[in-house]
Specification:
The protein is of the alpha/beta class. The protein has 24 helices and 29 strands. It starts with a strand and ends in a 19-residue tail after the last helix. It folds into 4 domains: 5-131, Ubiquitin-like (UB roll) (Roll); 170-237, Alpha-Beta Plaits (2-Layer Sandwich), CATH 3.30.70.20; 327-373 and 572-701, Rossmann fold, CATH 3.40.50; 377-567, Dimethylsulfoxide Reductase, domain 2 (3-Layer(aba) Sandwich). Strand 15, helix 8 and strand 16 form a beta-alpha-beta unit. The longest helix is centred in the last third of the chain and has 17 residues, at 537-553. Helix 8 crosses helix 22 and helix 12 (458-471) packs across helix 16. The strands form 8 sheets. A 7-stranded mixed beta sheet has the order 14-13-25-24-23-15-16. Strands 2-1-5-3-4 form a 5-stranded mixed beta sheet, with helices on both faces. A 5-stranded parallel beta sheet has the order 19-18-17-21-22, sandwiched between helices. 28% of the residues lie in helices and 16% in strands.
Length: 786
């Protein structure tokens, strides 16, 4: 028996998935039913009524909205009866009274262009051909698809509303709005911002902000979700507003570790003119952030570096690649391993990172290599020690079904924006959120408990929560008994964490600690979002130990909708770690390189500088330190304070100009695709490294393509075995990969026989991390930074 409800649409047998409506079942079977208010991943609303169909059940016929009506067994659905077509025509004609329709009802629409004068009437100015969304308008497509002979007996009443251009990124022209409420609903149901709402003006329903203010004043995140779902030209991106796309390419955003799958629209000149979240994207479910949606235009910037430069007589001059490579060979040759360093880009692909790591160890013989944003090295390294992976144990969208979320020392709304969307969706589903942070962040608005400990006491507070759980016998006794090594020893070590002492040292009332413990321990699935903002390496490692122990004693390791999510920076920081682009046992990381350059210990460096400058407060001294080097090579997209000090500057390709891979926070390996060909002499990171290596005499960098580099990665790195560019064409895969078939691992530690090692925490050691200063600087990245 089929799993679902069987019925017919226009004579075709259809099986609807549980919970699906008639419209969703029809779309699954590629049966066309017109609609304007429905949108995937949003609740059905039934606003527009263009999706009306005739349903016959047990001999009774009725006309219903297919987007809100679930199918019944053996129902007969007809989508194009004369009655249904007449009803749709009436509905659309009503819509036309408040939307320009001069072109929609004209037989010459296929012959007109934006520069033509209307041949029907010179007074017709509101035309499809001059709409910024012409040929992307769902209303226009709907009229074409249903082939309605519109008579438009009703007069069109132009609203004469001013176009809102006072906000960044996109314009709002509500003269073109059909009040389908998609934008309002996506802002509320999906993004949980409620920046837009339905308003009333002289008895007419419109869309706007609650108090008529700008979007900036209404709490808008400028994620662009409303623009993506708008079926008409009411909401349009300001950049390239009038550009027509001729192709679409699926690729990955490289602005943060979420790794959102995006659809890039490309015009006839090969420029990316629009970016939108891909509904098929497993990491983002069609969502994006402000930077991902609107921050792509730098790939088209005319001021990008176009060719190599070398320094002569104190000035940078244009050069050929051969001249630049010869200068690099002279500048790097003869250096001892300790005198050279490589800094990779946090946006660099896995192929870039692997090539850089290989070059460092086989050509330069150095272990001084790190990613520019690996400032969360301690957080990820300790998580790798404790759980075998410095990455999320669960998929990102597991968060939406968590019953409790514990957010520690991070601000995902600003730093990993789409991950925060999943967390807020869980709260909408009545999950409880606990925030441990001395700063006020957006997620504190959603928290049932906001604990503001003294900076540095976060690990001590979490250990206190663990003690409270054992005090009230709320631990997962079966998990502690069967899955934890030395569980009883952990329990004994926590007796030292007297709640009154913890309260005194953290500044949190003991009653609050107990309440937080009850909420987290009694939830069916509790997820921990773990950041280390403002903590030094030692404090970050202790925080990881405390968080892993807490997750273990509550049975949330290896549990669906539970687990731990590290909140780090850098789009491909995890990929860089996987590829070995991190310091070895005796190597220097990014933080330690800065004083080594200042002292003169490091004398030469290669910097893959796509956005290195200004990423984190810890890198503030990097530009000055680079100025002390004897020799500096910089591969960059733009001129910067770093390229200004370089001896050799190489033009770098952006993510839009390469076919390569990146790995996101949930271990999902995803494929970047070429959306725009390089226009000048720009090269990808792996190509640049390969040319330098060959110039220095290496014969081990003869890769013909990025897929060749990835094949070498798959052969040498166990978590990437069985993967290839071809395999990833159909979508990202979470490592580790099953050796018998290409199947990823969404959930780590799901094996019930796998033991979890806990750490016996020391009260005195955790208390050492507590700051004693009267004032403490608590930095954090904001969304509009690179």
């Amino acid at each position: 028996m089929a799993d679902g409800i069987t019925f017919t649409i226009d004579g075709r047998d259809v099986v609807a998935q549980p919970g699906h409506t008639i419209l969703q079942a029809a779309l699954d079977q590629e049966i066309y039913i017109p609609y304007l208010c429905y949108y995937p991943k949003m609740k059905p609303e039934g606003t527009c009524r263009t999706c009306m169909v005739e349903v016959e059940v047990n001999g009774r016929k009725m006309t219903v909205a297919s987007c809100t009506t679930p199918p019944m067994p053996d129902a007969v659905v007809m989508t194009n009866t004369p009655e249904v077509q007449e009803l749709r025509k009436d509905v659309i004609e009503l819509l036309m009274t408040e939307h320009p329709h001069g072109c929609l009802t004209c037989h010459r629409i296929e012959l007109c262009g934006p520069q033509d004068i209307c041949q029907r009437h010179v007074t017709v100015t509101d035309r499809c051909t001059i709409c910024p969304k012409n040929e992307r308008c769902e209303l226009k497509d709907t009229v074409r698809m249903v082939e309605l002979d519109l008579r438009t007996p009703l007069n069109y009443h132009r609203r004469d509303l001013p176009i809102h251009v006072d906000d960044p990124f996109y314009d709002r022209d509500y003269n073109l709005c059909i009040v389908c409420s998609r934008c309002v609903r996506v802002c509320d149901e999906v993004r949980f911002d409620t920046a837009l709402t339905l308003t009333s003006r002289s008895g007419v329903t419109l869309v706007g902000t609650a108090h008529g203010t700008s979007l900036l004043e209404s709490g808008c995140e400028f994620c662009g979700a409303c623009v993506d779902v708008c079926p008409t030209g009411a909401l349009t991106e300001r950049s390239y507003k009038w550009e027509k796309a001729v192709s679409e390419v699926t690729t990955i955003c490289t602005n943060c570790p979420v790794g959102c799958q995006m659809v890039a629209e490309v015009n006839k000149f090969g420029k990316v003119v629009r970016f939108k979240g891909d509904l098929a994207g497993a990491a983002n479910n069609g969502q994006a952030c402000m930077t991902g949606k609107f921050g792509y235009d730098y790939t088209n910037d005319g001021s990008r570096l176009k060719r190599p430069y070398i320094r002569e007589d104190g000035m940078l001059r244009k050069a050929t690649w051969d001249e630049a490579l010869e200068r690099i060979k002279q500048g790097l040759a003869g250096r001892t391993p300790g005198e050279v360093a490589i800094i990779t880009s946090p946006r660099g692909s896995n192929e870039d990172q692997y090539s850089a790591a290989k070059f460092a160890r086989t050509v330069l013989n150095t272990t001084n290599i790190d990613s520019a944003l690996n400032s969360d090295h301690a957080l990820l390294s300790q998580l790798e020690v404790r759980l075998g992976a410095g990455a999320a144990t669960n998929p990102i969208w597991d968060l939406e079904d968590a019953k409790c979320l514990l957010v520690v020392g991070g601000n995902p709304t600003e730093e990993q924006n789409v991950l925060a969307v999943a967390a807020k969706k869980a709260v909408r589903k009545e999950a409880k959120m606990i925030v441990i942070d001395s700063r006020e962040t957006e997620l504190t608005r959603y928290a049932v408990e906001w604990l503001r400990p003294r900076p540095g006491s976060e690990a001590l507070l979490i250990a206190g929560i663990g003690r409270a759980i054992f005090d009230e016998a709320l631990e997962d006794k079966e998990f502690v008994a069967t899955r934890i090594e030395q569980g009883e020893a952990l329990k004994q070590s926590l007796w030292a964490f007297d709640l009154e002492k913890v309260s005194r040292d953290t500044g949190i009332e003991a009653s609050q600690i107990r309440q937080a413990a009850r909420i987290f321990a009694t939830s069916d699935a509790g997820a921990i979002l773990l950041g280390a903002n403002g903590l030094d390496d030692s404090a970050a490692e202790k925080l990881v130990d405390a968080a892993v122990d807490l997750s273990a004693i509550t049975g949330n390791i290896g549990r669906a909708f539970g687990g731990i999510y590290p909140l780090y920076q850098g789009a491909n920081t995890l990929g860089a770690r996987d590829m070995g682009a991190t310091p070895g046992e005796n190597g220097l990381g990014i933080i330690d390189m800065i004083p080594a350059m200042s002292r003169g210990d490091i004398k030469a460096a290669l910097v893959m500088a796509d956005g290195v400058s200004g990423y984190a407060p810890a890198l503030e001294g990097l530009p000055i330190a680079l100025g002390n080097l004897d020799f500096l090579v910089v591969s960059a997209v733009f001129d910067s304070e770093i390229t200004a000090q370089a001896d050799v500057v190489l033009p770098a390709a952006t993510y839009a100009e390469q076919s390569s891979t990146v790995t996101n926070v949930e271990r999902r390996v995803q494929l970047l695709r070429v959306t725009a060909e390089p226009r000048h002499e720009e090269l990808t990171g792996w190509e640049t490294i390969a040319r330098i290596a060959r110039a220095m005499g290496s014969t081990d960098f003869a890769h013909g393509s990025s897929s060749d580099v990835f094949a070498e990665i798959a052969g040498n790195i166990s978590n990437y075995r069985e993967l290839s560019h071809e395999v990833l064409q159909s979508g990202g895969i979470q490592w580790p990969v099953d050796s018998s078939s290409v199947v990823g691992t969404p959930l780590l530690h799901a094996d019930s026989t796998q033991k979890v090692t806990v750490v016996q925490l020391s009260y005195d050691e955790l208390a050492e991390s507590i700051g004693t200063s009267a004032l403490t600087f608590a930095p954090g990245r904001v969304l509009n930074q690179p």
